[in-house]
Design brief:
alpha/beta; Arc Repressor Mutant, subunit A; UDP-N-acetylmuramoyl-L-alanine:D-glutamate ligase; four-stranded mixed sheet; globular
Amino acid sequence: MEVLTIETLTTREKEVLELIKKDATISREKIAAELAISESAVGTYIHHLSSKGYLLGRGYITAPEKKVVVVGGANLDIKGYSPNYIKGSSSPGWIEESSGGVGRNIAEDMALLGQEVVLLTAISSDHFGQKLKEETRDAGVDISHFKIASAQEHKTGVYLAHLDQNGDLIGAVNDMRILKEIDSNYLREKRKIIETSAMMIFDTNLEESTINYLIELASEKKMIKIVDAVSVEKSLKLKGKLESLDYLRGNLDEIETVLDIVKIKDSEKSQKLSIKNRIKKIRDYYQQNKYLPDLIISTGKDGAYYLSHQDGKVKLEHFKAAEINSEEIVETTGAGDALTAGLAAGIMDKYSIAEAIELGIKASALTVKSELTCNPDLAELK
């Protein structure tokens, strides 16, 4: 197993950091005078401190206790809508673009909900990457630690989806090969950002080796650890790692799979069972495995279920879905991400878990009413 090393600072970097800690408004000129160095040298040291995560944002802001770090995918969502979809035929419709990616969506939704969020992800220097940077920054997310790869070597991730007249997914292609760039070397550089966060959220678009490294890095920290399962296949990367998590959010298929209650090849058979029976199987398994994290299980129109271990017993709670008229639904992309973001924002704001889940359900309901993957109206829920 790889040994983690503490991010080191030079003697001069430590001196600069100490002055900033004493006075966050101190000027470069004053730092230069105090240390008898040039202002350009001060600028270099400040850049180094920012890249190592000791300073955040545009100013001399030391890493705060309430910061949330999100590690995961960022991609451009290209969505084609077919009001009169005919299988096997070219269907008239229209195409929309918006910034997406599970990790990026969660980060933007949390920023809209009033949280201070740093996003760790990888994009290319191509035009898609530039669009992602600008839109994510404008939403209030700290993008200063993005890993930006050369356009000659990588393409920014793209999610290409085809949706029917109800806004439901017909099929999609997701090219996230660039996420291999989020590796242990990159995360080691950003270690201080992760260590000083109150909460870490990641998605399973990441490589399994990266997930292992993240969990190892955060294992002895007091931060809250939340994971979004993303998909049935990708959720398998979490097997054997669940005891290190605090919360896992996924839909019924994903939770059944990661708990090994249902094999992928049997998922269609499981889907024919009632939600009540499927939840009962999950509850029975949960009862026998006390190491499992709290589970938030999305069940579409049936709302969400919450499973937790309390005083040696399993507590199961059901939360109704928000009432939405079918004509209000534009499409469902990003709804699960919004639920995760609302849950996390509620926890950060010291809501009860029930209140946090309710916030997530409200955020999810707003999301399906917008063509954008992240609905700006989430800011009204603050």
